[in-house]
Design a protein that fits this description.
The complex is a heterodimer.
Chain A lengths: L13 H20 L3 E2 L5 E3 H5 L10 E3 L5 E4 L4 H9 L9 E10 L9 E10 L4 H18 L5 E6 H9 L5 H12 L3 H11 L3 H5 L4 E2 L2 H9 L3 H17 L7 E4 L12 E6 L8 E5 L13 E7 H11 L10 E5 L4 H13 L4 E5 H14 L1
Parallel strand pairs in A: 1-5, 7-9, 13-14
Antiparallel strand pairs in A: 2-4, 3-4, 5-6, 6-12, 7-10, 8-9, 10-11, 11-12
Helix pairs in contact in A: 1-4, 1-11, 4-10, 5-10
Chain B lengths: L1 E6 L2 H12 L15 E4 L4 E6 L4 H6 L5 E5 H7 L4 E5 L5 E8 L13 E6 L2 H10 L3 E6 L6 H4 L5 E6 L3 H5 L2 E10 L1 E5 L1 H6 L1 H14 L3
Parallel strand pairs in B: 1-3, 1-4, 7-8, 7-9
Antiparallel strand pairs in B: 2-3, 4-11, 5-11, 6-9, 6-10
Chain lengths: 371, 211
């Protein structure tokens, strides 16, 4: 018999837990210092609740409970928090600032962890560009606080590509196809598509529209879609609100598309050298809360803790685990005395363990070597 | 420095010719074929010479920033990479072929279940599933044409340029899966980090690509 762990899971050993704990401590500090309060939602919910947020990614671990109801492990935090904001916290004054930190489960992440960790913040009940700017600034200052080397952040807007497509005469199926091409940045196929459909020259301009704030003016001149121009004006307002935060590593990427269906406005992706996926992501979702009752605007961010661990583990070659400060070795007749000493030291904040002299040698050796 | 993964073999020569015409490569000698890494310090490029099937893997994990690879390999590997440009070289087709004289004219006629030999199991499975045919895939690594002749399989899914090898082996084409050409691919993070340089490469190649 073999005792392996299932595909997509991971045991975390003391060295890894230490790094993860340090990262989480920084995130708790960072998110609460911006006035966000932590909430903890259940690890599993009714499938119908989670499905309120998910149109395009039906990716759950689900099961049936004793009453025959479909239950699923949470695969996202934003949707449960939208539920919470509209039920338990419905009467709290707005805007509501909430944050979370916990594990998520997605069944179909091939070759990746199916149980993974995320921290994030949601700003609910504020439609202003200043709210978008706050979430962007919070995301970027979190990457800075965590010490991610060489991080960058791209800002996009759902209204750019959506706008161009809505102003076009393409069928719904063709629009979906184009969104998928942009999701995979498959510009080879995009070129063939535009040639075939003889439509939408705007689509071919998007891949080159990435850069600093100047790209907005260039896009306003080059793009012909009126709806896309409305989105451009919105990005410009957000950048204006972001200016006092004095953060630099920003790019505007007008070709950005996200695979979560609930985004309605600005969205963003943070990245780091050496990391295949994104390190943080988020955006505005003004329609999601309406699914749980009252329609409310909202904007949020999520930071991938596993990704942060990966990047920081790459940076530090020598990793240390948490080692107790003191080991009290006792012989049988001094047992009580050893406990008294240990208790006294613990009260002073030291980490102490006790061990009988027959056990002490290998343990002491292990820690001496590590030290 | 930018790392570029190239597929060893015929496609590499065509890719290099394209790179030369676009001015991206000048005085580099790729003829010393035993080398796996070739540096072009002047241009700031480092070339990795890899097996075609491994190019998307190098790029996905960031061991290479960009790469050149056929659409057949891209579809079969399904790696998370960006496809920046159709290089319009290495053109061929992924086709379905059966034994001449089998009486079959169309893919649908293979019936409810079919044994299919291929070097491309994922592509094959998807293609037959989309036609409502349950296929049993027999994975082979070369000389796929042999499989129907020795009754190992009912059909094959393979790439062909002119169809001549297929015909010479007593087979006939009954369906096309998709057309193939080489693509310029990029690592997702590299695309953002080296964006201006990558767009410049795309632009220079675009000018010499014959569509």
């Amino acid at each position: 018999m073999s005792f392996e762990i299932p595909e997509g899971t991971k045991d975390l050993l003391p060295v890894e837990v230490k790094l993860k704990n340090e990262i989480e401590a920084k995130l708790h500090k960072q998110l609460s210092s911006w006035g966000y309060r932590q909430v903890i939602t259940p690890s599993y919910e009714y499938l119908t609740t989670l499905a309120q947020g998910e149109e395009s990614r039906l990716d759950y671990f689900s099961f049936i409970n004793e009453s025959g109801e479909s239950i699923a492990l949470r695969n996202d935090f934003t949707t449960p928090i939208a539920r919470l904001a509209n039920v338990a916290l419905a009467d709290e004054p707005r805007p509501l600032r909430l944050y979370y930190l916990g594990n998520l489960f997605r069944l179909q992440r091939k070759e990746r962890k199916r149980e993974f960790w995320q921290a994030g913040a949601e700003l609910i009940g504020d439609r202003s560009p200043e709210a978008d700017a706050e979430v962007l600034a919070l995301a970027m200052s979190s990457l800075e606080e965590l010490g991610i080397p060489g991080w960058g952040l791209d800002i996009g807007h759902r209204g750019i590509l959506r706008g161009i497509l809505n102003d076009s005469n393409l069928s719904i199926k063709a629009k979906q196809e184009v969104e998928n091409l942009f999701l995979n940045k498959d510009f080879a196929e995009l070129k063939a598509f535009v040639k075939r459909e003889k439509t939408c020259n705007d689509l071919l301009l998007l891949p080159d529209l990435r850069g600093d704030a100047k790209i907005i003016n260039q896009a306003a001149k080059e793009l012909s879609s009126p709806s896309a121009k409305i989105a451009l004006a919105e990005i410009e307002k957000i950048l204006g609100a972001l200016a006092p935060y004095k953060i630099n590593n920003i790019n505007i990427d007008l070709a950005m598309v996200k695979d979560l269906a609930y985004y309605t406005g600005m969205f963003f992706e943070g990245f780091a050298p050496g990391l295949a996926g994104v390190i943080c992501t988020g955006g505005r979702y003004d329609k999601l809360l309406g699914n749980f009752g009252k329609d409310e605007p909202a904007v949020g961010l999520a930071i991938g803790i596993d990704e942060v661990v990966e990047v920081l583990a790459m940076k530090t070659s020598k990793r240390s685990e948490a080692i107790p400060d003191l080991c009290v070795v006792y012989s049988q007749e001094n047992y009580t005395k050893a406990i008294n000493i240990a208790t006294e030291k613990r009260l002073k904040g030291e980490s102490v363990f006790i061990t009988s002299d027959s056990n002490s040698l290998p343990l002491a050796k292990k820690y001496l070597k590590l030290n | 420095m930018l790392t570029i993964a190239l597929p060893k073999g015929r496609l590499m020569d065509k890719a290099l010719e394209l790179f030369q015409r676009s001015g991206l490569v000048q005085n580099i000698d790729f003829a010393e074929s035993r080398k796996l890494i070739i540096e072009d310090k002047e241009a700031g490029f480092r070339y990795i010479l890899a097996k075609p099937f491994d190019v998307p893997t190098y790029v996905e994990y960031g061991a290479a920033d960009i790469g050149v690879v056929g659409k057949d390999v891209l579809k079969e590997n399904a790696r998370a990479v960006y496809e920046l440009l159709d290089l319009a070289i290495g053109r061929c087709r992924m086709i379905v072929a059966v034994k001449e004289g089998s009486g079959l004219e169309k893919v649908q006629e293979l019936g409810f279940s079919a044994k299919v030999a291929s070097k491309y199991p994922r592509v094959t499975k998807e293609f037959f599933r989309s036609h409502g045919i349950q296929s049993e895939i027999i994975e082979l690594n070369g000389s796929i044409e042999l499989a129907p002749i020795v009754d190992l399989a009912d059909a094959i899914v393979d790439i062909t340029e002119t169809g001549r090898t297929i015909e010479e082996n007593g087979l006939k084409i009954i369906g096309e899966v998709f057309p193939i050409s080489a693509r310029l691919i990029a690592n997702q993070a590299s695309y953002k980090i080296h964006y201006p340089e990558l767009r410049r490469i795309v632009k220079s190649l675009e000018e010499v690509v014959s569509c």
